[in-house]
Structures are given as C-alpha cells and as structure tokens.
C-alpha cells in the first residue's frame, strides 16, 4: 500500500513540474503555427511570425522605452540600495528599525495604489507623466529589493579584512573600493538583474504614470485586446529567453558566492 | 641604551561602564620580542588594537617611535597588525595580497614584483611562480600564516603586532611556527608585540612578557623573572604549572614563612607583605615535587602524606595527582628519565619539596582553591 | 565595527547621510502621494471643485452600491480559492523537493519550477488564454481523447481566473514552503518516528507546526498577489470573474471618476492590511518572522 502511495506521490510531483512548463511551451510551439490563429489546429511549421514580429515597429519601440526605464530604475535601486545597506549593517542610528520596516511598505502595497497616488500627485502639482515619473514610481519597491539583497551579503562581510587594508596603508575610501565593493560585487549584480526584470515586467504602476509612451507590457496589453495572431506568441517566445537567462544567471551567482 | 620604540602611558579603555584596560604603563624596546600574556578578556587584544589604531584610547597616550600616535589613523601608523583570523583578502591571490601595502604607497609595479618575489622566497613558498598566482582559499593553514606575515613585513614596519596568530594551528604546526617567528624576528630586526593566552608560546619566544588580567598589568619581566619571582598569586598560578596550598602563618624568619596546615608546619619564601596570623597561599611547581614511598625518610624541609588519586601520562612526563587529605589536590610531575618506580593508584605516598621552591603570598582571594 | 572614524560615541552623521536617499524616496514617493490620495478622496468628483471637502465619494462607494459589495465578495472568494488550492498543490511538491528528492537533484527541481515564472505575466496569460479558450488547446486535447464534443466554457469564468491566479502565485507559495521545509532537520522527523508517530501524525504534529510561519507567509503573499493582479482577471475573467482591482482601474481609465477611484484604491489598502493582520494573528507569527520569510525569498 505504501509503495503505491509513494509512486502516486512521485507521479504527482512529476505532473506538477510538467504543468509548470506546459503553458510556456504551448505558446512557444504555437508561434511556429502556420495559421492566422495563435491556437490549434496546427497548420504547418513556419517562422514567418518571427519575421513579422521583428519588423513590428511598435514592438521595437516599446522595448526601447522599457529598456530606458529599466536602466533608470536599476541604477537608482542599486546605488540607493548600496548606500542604505551600508547604513543598516554598519551603523546604529535613531530610526533604523523604523526605516527597516517602512521599506517593506512599497513592497507590500499593490502597484496600482502607487500608480494612482502618483498620478494624483502629478495632477495636483502639474508634473508631467512620462519617463521620469515612471522611473521614480517603479524605484520605490525596487530600492527595497536592492537594499535587502546587498545588505544580506554585507552582513556576512568580515570586517577584519577591511581593517587589514587600513592597516596596510589604504585610507577609508581606498579600503572600501579595493576590498569591500569587490566583496559585494555579486550581490550588486544580483540586485541589478533582479530589479531590472522586476521593473521590466511591471504593468500595474507603469500604466498610470507613463503618459503617452508605451512600454513592453503595455504593448502586450494593447496587442492582446485586439485580434490575436501567432505573432504575439513569437514576441512572447523571444522575450522569454533573455528573461529566463537573466533569472538563471542570478540564481547561479547567488549559489556560487554563498559565504559559508 | 636601547631605544623605547612604543611607549604606553596611563592607558585606559572603557566601553560604556566596562573598563577593559585600566591605567597601563609600559615601554617596549627596539627589536624586542615582547608579549602580552593573559586569559581571554584580560584586555591584551584591546591594547594591541589601540596601538595599531583601531581603537581610540579613553584616557592615556601612545607614543610610537617618539611621536604621539593617539590621533593617527591606522593607515598612517608605523605599525602593522597580523589579525587573529589572518584577514587575507579573499578576492585576491597570494601575490596581490602581499603586494597590497606597497600598492597603497604608490610604488612602481616593477619594484613591487621584485619585493614580493623576494618575500615569497623568504617565507618559503616555493615555487614562487605557482604560489604567486594561487588563490587564498587554496592554501593550508601554515601557508596562510606565512602569507599574512609576508604581507605585513614587506612594508618594513617599525613594530609588528601579532594577535594570537598561532591560535588556529594544530600542535605540530604551532611548535614549528614558534621557532620560525623567532627566527624571522631576528632576521628582519623588527620589534614584535605578541598577544597570546598561551604561556608556553610567550615563554618560548619573548624577551619580555607583560602578564595581564582583567585589564590590569600585573607583572612585566623576562620569562625567567616571571617564572621564578612572580609578584602576585595570579602570575604564580598562570605561569607554569603550580600547586596551591593554604595555611596560617605562625612565624616569619629571614623571609621564610612558617605556616601551619593541619598538624604540620611548612616553609615557604614570602613573596609579598605577610604578617604573623595571616592566611597564606603557597605555590609550588609540579616539577619541584618529589614523591617517595610512605615509609621512606624524606630529606626535604617540606613533606606531607598523601595518596595517589590518578596518574596521567603526558608524553614526556607523568603527572601524579594526589590527595593530601580532605579532597585537597596536589600534583607532581615526574619526568621519564628520572627513572624510578611507577606508583599505583590508591597507594600511600609522601610528597616533598624544598622551601626555596615554595612561594608564599598573602591570600587575596583572586585564585580559586585546588580541590576535586 | 566600521572604518576608522574616531570616537564611536560622538553622534555619527554618516549613517544619516547614507540612509537619506532611501528616506527621501519613502517620504516623497510613498507617503506624500498616499496622503494626497487620501485628501483627494475627500474632494468631489469634478475637476473644478477640487477645493471643496465632501464625503460624497465615500457615500457613493459604500452606500447603496450593490455592485461594489458583489465584486468585493467575489474577489475575496476567488482569492481564497486560489490560496487554498495553491497551498494544497504546492505543499506536497515543496515537501518532496525539500526532503525526499536527492540532494544533487534539488537545485534542478527548484529551478524547473521557478524558471517558467520568470517570464512576463503576459506570457502566462496568453498561454492560459490559448489553453482554455472555447476552441483552445485544451479543447483539442479533450476532443482528441474523445472526452468532449462542444466548446469549452471555462474561459471568462471564475474558474479561469482562479486557475490563472494559482499558476502565477506558485512562486510566492512554493518558495517560503520550500525554504522552511528544507531547513527542517531530518532528525526531528526520525525522532518522532522512533517515538511511535505514524506518517500522518508526523505530518500533523511536527511538519505542519514547524512550517506554520512559512504557510502563513505564503498564504498572505499569495492572497495579496491575487488581489493586486489586474491582467489575469482582465483577460481571463470577463463578467463573472470580475475582481476588485478592476474597479479601481476602470474608475481611472474608463469612467474618469478619479476621486471615487481614490476611495476604491485606499479601501484596497485597508483590505490588504486586514488580510495581513488576520493572517498573522491566526497563525501566531509576528511581523518580524514574516519579514524574515520574505528576505529568505530574496535569498532564493
């Protein structure tokens, strides 16, 4: 009896793993469908939808807009995250715990609330919606992620190494640059990649504060409201690859540089 | 007259209400191998960190090579510190670690390369080419030690500070490194300030030792002085292996204390101010105790009857743990070559020692009694 | 322990400098807008009357507004379904990967689960759209297996939304569970077995209590995720799968009732706070522990 139970359990886990992949694989597979409809029936293999996708100007433009915003958000998140992590881990100051807890608020609050509140802010103070507002809006929770990721590595730093650098003649700044930052480098990279993906995929906040511009998620949104063709499968498939790669790189950096 | 290279005046360090170092004064001579010896928490590492610049003094002054160093940051002091966990830079290989200090001084790469290679040879990491490129975590404990030492010595500091550098090494390596460190010190003619809790290390390597406990400097002297003329109970107990015995003073003649324990009178040399009627604690070294059979006639001034509780074989010597009544412990250390009989557990024996080998202190309650 | 900078007890201004950008961001981009939003909700819904204070928006939303309560109820119901189903589905898998799978396989198994979640949310929606459409992929499979004849009617129902939510919340549920289960010392289970506990007992008395924090964190996060998911109900839901967040979007984008939208948005925050509160209280975890679990998520 137990044996059968174990086998069923194992099968269940396998099915679970397969199911997690099936939707994505279905999309990718159907992007090669020689049909005007993105779903079955299968009418033959073709790559023409990929060429249409690559020629789609709206798609390309939306990528550029997204990249600009992501670059801005990632820069802010990593830099502010680094500074804040240093403050948290190395010093004790009044309000430290309050700041710690407050940083979680942007993470837990739904993106839509950020969107509407900043929209209202822009409306009230006659600030223009657009790139800058979107970058600022999306940075709010990404800064927290950046801080957490970098702080978690910084906590494992052996101060004796920094003192050794000082002892050997490096002043404060040089010691930081030659010893501490290299140590933090993996965390900085992970934080950068993570916030990049996070801001790239954001829709709920961006849609409110981006104004007339179109980011990639917004492009997908409008595209999906009209008739679907396998082109959208092709676009999804093309984006899936770099996104997955980035995620994997992140995971591997984290594992490789785990401090014992 | 040898120059004083490090002078410490009224040195005090408080952490909040806790006093880690209390009014310490001493001077270290140029090219001396000086040790600060004491149990954990005695303040010795704190003093080292103040000398190297990582802690500020609460009160007091530190002079390094004649100049007041209190406000000088560590990267500008003429000292270099070897950290307890070595603190080798994990992101850099052996070459870069050793070269670091020279790079900080802006010395040309050409010259750095020569120097580093020379030091790799000095610390015996051969072949040089292969070791230079090795990553730090590929090194053994002993190799890491040597890289840490080279990294500091290459800067030719006036004073090298060492914070329990041998603590993480296994016994054999430690023995080897003790000799190597002493030889290195002679060769590079640098002052070494060495911090340790291990008295055998301090005794083996130092010209002078400062014994510390609970933030106070108890005694400063050569190993021989500390061994034979301890000025307080703590030092007597801490240095070497000792027995402690207590009694009441009945008379003092010519600096020799006659004290009573049980039915007998014992004789010991007074080490501090003792008056008749005082309780004294008397310390004897294990190796100064001789054992004879119960029926033998003892030729020592001091003798007491005891029985053998335990025998511990310690390699080059045998420790005989005895009970001289009422669960009071007295050990003797018999060296193998003295030959002679083996004693059995439970056997009744006589312990004897000379009165010069017994040091009497007026009891001050610092050291706990020896009992089972 | 810091870089050399002198007497520790002097009030140190350096950390305040370091932390100030983060503080500024929080004040100007989080708190200030929220405060403004609250104020905004008390203005009437007309661009020219923005200096008048009124409760009319609140009245409109909460009083005599059956749609609002219907949608609210539906949202909570769907989210609860999603949470429970997600928990039931993920827990066995998390346990398997954490405890039963061999050590060298674990990373691969975890990655297999995480990777599909790394892609854009739209891809996930697209895939479910294609899958569950009336004449979609699932239809073809079932037709091939001769299980059904006519079109599926799964899409644009509550069920579709629930499926989508369950799928997209795998990350938030799986990772805390996995992290905690992995940290569970095998010897605890063995000790229990040694003392006579059957498998069921071990599960009930040892494993589940131990993972209490992770379960509650996973559920809370999944619930919050379900509430803040716009595109899933938007594309998979239709009329019967209408979720609360769509009301907020519509107020701003369709009907242009911004001030009312503000009330709806703020109420959403209130709901979330209540959910978090209930979740923490019922499982007895503290905020600190939940934060630790979220941090653990980052670590994975």
Description:
The complex is a heterotrimer of chains A (260), B (372) and C (300). Chain A has helices at 2-30, 48-55, 57-90, 96-102, 105-108, 111-125, 131-154, 159-167, 172-200, 206-209, 216-225, 230-256. Chain A is mainly α and 260 residues long. Chain A is built from twelve helices and no strands. Chain A is globular, with a radius of gyration of 23 Å. With 372 residues, chain B is α+β, with helices and mostly antiparallel strands. In chain B, strand 11 and strand 12 (256-261) form a beta hairpin. In chain B, helix 2 packs across helix 3 and helix 2 packs parallel to helix 5 (141-153). Chain C has one domain: Orthogonal Bundle (MetI-like fold), CATH 1.10.3720.10. The radius of gyration of chain C is 24 Å and the shape is globular. Chain C starts with 13 loop residues before the first helix and ends with a helix. In chain C, 42% of the residues are buried. Mean pLDDT of chain C is 81; it is low at 1-11. The chains are: A mainly alpha (260), B alpha+beta (372), C mainly alpha (300). The interface between B and C is small, with 6 and 4 residues.
> What is the multimeric organization of the chains shown?
heterotrimer
Which runs of chain B of at least 5 residues are low in confidence (pLDDT < 50)? none
Low-pLDDT stretches of chain A are none
The CATH architecture of chain A = Orthogonal Bundle
Total of helices of chain B: 9
| CATH fold assignment of chain A | MetI-like fold
CATH superfamily of chain A: MetI-like
Determine the CATH topology of the largest domain in chain B. Rossmann fold
Question: Summary?
Answer:
The complex is a heterotrimer of chains A (260), B (372) and C (300). Chain B is of the alpha+beta class.
Write the layout of secondary structure elements.
The complex is a heterotrimer of chains A (260), B (372) and C (300).
Chain A: H1 2-30, H2 48-55, H3 57-90, H4 96-102, H5 105-108, H6 111-125, H7 131-154, H8 159-167, H9 172-200, H10 206-209, H11 216-225, H12 230-256
Helix pairs in contact in A: 1-12, 2-12, 3-7, 3-9, 3-11, 7-9, 8-9, 9-12
Chain B: E1 4-15, E2 18-29, E3 33-37, H1 44-52, E4 59-64, E5 67-68, E6 79-82, H2 94-104, H3 109-122, H4 128-133, H5 141-153, E7 159-163, H6 171-188, E8 191-196, H7 199-205, E9 208-213, E10 216-221, H8 223-228, H9 233-238, E11 242-253, E12 256-261, E13 264-270, E14 279-285, E15 290-293, E16 302-313, E17 317-323, E18 329-335, E19 348-353, E20 358-362
Parallel strand pairs in B: 3-8, 3-9, 6-7, 7-8, 13-20
Antiparallel strand pairs in B: 1-2, 1-4, 4-5, 9-10, 11-12, 11-14, 12-13, 14-20, 15-19, 16-17, 16-19, 17-18
Helix pairs in contact in B: 2-3, 2-5
Chain C: H1 14-41, H2 56-62, H3 66-100, H4 103-114, H5 121-132, H6 137-144, H7 158-168, H8 170-183, H9 186-194, H10 199-210, H11 212-227, H12 231-236, H13 244-253, H14 258-283, H15 287-299
Helix pairs in contact in C: 1-14, 2-14, 3-7, 3-8, 3-11, 5-7, 8-11, 8-15, 9-10, 11-14, 11-15, 13-14
């Amino acid at each position: 009896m137990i044996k059968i139970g174990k086998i069923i359990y194992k099968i269940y886990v396998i099915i679970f793993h397969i199911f997690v992949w099936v939707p994505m694989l279905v999309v990718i597979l159907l992007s090669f469908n020689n049909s005007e409809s993105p779903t079955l029936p299968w009418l033959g293999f073709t790559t023409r939808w990929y060429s249409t996708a690559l020629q789609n100007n709206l798609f390309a433009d939306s990528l550029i807009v997204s990249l600009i915003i992501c670059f801005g958000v990632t820069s802010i998140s990593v830099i502010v995250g680094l500074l804040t992590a240093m403050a948290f881990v190395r010093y004790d100051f009044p309000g430290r715990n309050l700041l710690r807890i407050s940083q979680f608020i942007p993470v837990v609050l739904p993106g839509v609330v950020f969107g509407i509140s900043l929209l209202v802010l822009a409306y009230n103070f006659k600030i223009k919606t657009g790139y800058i507002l979107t970058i600022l809006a999306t940075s709010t929770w990404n800064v927290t992620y950046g801080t957490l990721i970098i702080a978690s590595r910084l906590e494992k730093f052996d101060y004796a190494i920094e003192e050794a650098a000082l002892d050997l003649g490096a002043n404060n700044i040089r010691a930081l640059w030659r010893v501490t930052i290299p140590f933090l480098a993996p965390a900085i990279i992970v934080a950068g990649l993570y916030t990049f993906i996070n801001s790239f995929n954001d829709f709920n906040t961006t849609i409110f504060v981006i104004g007339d511009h179109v980011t990639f998620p917004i492009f997908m949104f409008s595209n999906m409201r009209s008739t679907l063709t396998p082109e959208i499968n092709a676009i999804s498939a093309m984006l899936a690859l770099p996104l997955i790669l980035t995620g994997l790189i992140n995971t591997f950096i984290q594992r490789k540089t785990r401090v014992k | 007259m040898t120059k004083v290279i490090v002078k410490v005046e009224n040195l005090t360090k408080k952490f909040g209400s806790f006093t880690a170092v209390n009014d310490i004064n001493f001077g270290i001579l140029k090219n001396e191998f000086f040790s600060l010896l004491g149990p954990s928490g005695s303040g010795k590492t704190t003093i080292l960190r103040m000398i190297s610049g990582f802690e500020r003094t609460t009160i007091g002054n530190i002079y390094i090579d004649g100049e007041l160093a209190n406000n000088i940051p560590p990267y500008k002091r003429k000292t270099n510190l070897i950290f307890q966990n070595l603190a080798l830079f994990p992101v850099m290989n052996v070459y870069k670690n050793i070269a670091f200090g020279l790079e900080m001084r802006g010395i040309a790469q050409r010259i750095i390369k020569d120097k580093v290679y020379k030091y790799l040879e000095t610390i015996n990491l051969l072949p040089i080419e292969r070791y230079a490129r090795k990553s730090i975590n590929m090194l053994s404990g002993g190799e890491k030690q040597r890289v840490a030492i080279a990294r500091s010595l290459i800067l030719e500091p006036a004073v090298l500070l060492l914070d329990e550098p041998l603590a993480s090494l296994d016994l054999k390596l430690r023995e080897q490194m003790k000799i190597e460190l002493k030889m290195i010190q002679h060769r590079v003619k640098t002052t070494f300030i060495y911090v340790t809790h291990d008295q055998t290390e301090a005794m083996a390597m130092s010209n002078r030792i400062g014994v510390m406990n609970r933030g106070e400097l108890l005694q400063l002297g050569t190993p021989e002085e500390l061994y034979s003329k301890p000025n307080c109970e703590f030092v007597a107990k801490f240095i070497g292996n000792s027995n402690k015995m207590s009694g009441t003073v009945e008379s003092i003649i010519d600096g020799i204390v006659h004290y009573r324990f049980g039915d007998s009178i014992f004789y010991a040399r007074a080490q501090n101010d003792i008056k008749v009627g005082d309780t004294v604690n008397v310390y004897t070294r294990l190796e100064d105790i001789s054992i004879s059979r119960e029926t033998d006639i003892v030729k020592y001034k001091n003798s007491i009857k005891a029985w053998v509780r335990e025998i511990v074989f310690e390699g080059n010597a045998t420790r005989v743990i005895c009970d001289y009544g009422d669960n009071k412990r007295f050990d003797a250390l018999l060296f193998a070559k003295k030959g002679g009989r083996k004693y059995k557990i439970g056997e009744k024996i006589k312990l004897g020692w000379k009165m010069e080998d017994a040091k009497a202190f007026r009891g001050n309650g610092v050291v706990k009694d020896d009992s089972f | 322990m810091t870089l050399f900078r002198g007497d520790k007890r002097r009030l140190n201004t350096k950390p305040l400098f370091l932390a100030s950008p983060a503080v500024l961001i929080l004040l100007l981009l989080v708190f200030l807008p929220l405060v403004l939003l609250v104020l905004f909700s008390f203005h009437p819904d007309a661009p020219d009357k923005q200096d008048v204070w009124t409760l009319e928006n609140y009245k409109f939303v909460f009083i005599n507004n059956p749609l609002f309560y219907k949608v609210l109820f539906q949202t909570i119901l769907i989210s609860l379904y999603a949470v429970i189903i997600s928990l039931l589905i993920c827990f066995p898998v998390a346990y398997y990967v954490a405890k039963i799978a061999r050590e060298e396989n674990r990373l691969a198994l975890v990655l297999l689960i995480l990777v599909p979640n790394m892609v854009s949310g739209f891809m996930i929606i697209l895939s479910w759209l294609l899958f569950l459409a009336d004449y979609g992929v699932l239809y073809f499979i079932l037709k091939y297996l001769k299980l059904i004849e006519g079109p599926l009617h799964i899409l644009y129902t509550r069920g579709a939304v629930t499926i989508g939510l369950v799928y997209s919340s795998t990350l938030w549920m799986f990772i805390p569970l996995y992290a905690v289960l992995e940290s569970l010392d095998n010897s605890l289970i063995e000790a229990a077995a040694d003392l006579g506990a059957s498998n069921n007992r071990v599960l009930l008395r040892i494993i589940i209590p131990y993972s209490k924090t992770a379960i509650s964190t996973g559920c809370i996060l999944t619930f919050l995720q379900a509430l803040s998911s716009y595109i899933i109900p938007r594309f998979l839901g239709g009329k019967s799968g209408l979720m609360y967040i769509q009301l907020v979007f519509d107020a701003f984008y369709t009907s242009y009732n911004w001030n009312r939208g503000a009330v709806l948005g703020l109420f959403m925050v209130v709901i979330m706070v209540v959910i978090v509160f209930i979740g923490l209280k019922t499982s007895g975890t503290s905020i600190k522990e939940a934060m630790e679990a979220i941090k653990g998520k980052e670590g994975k």
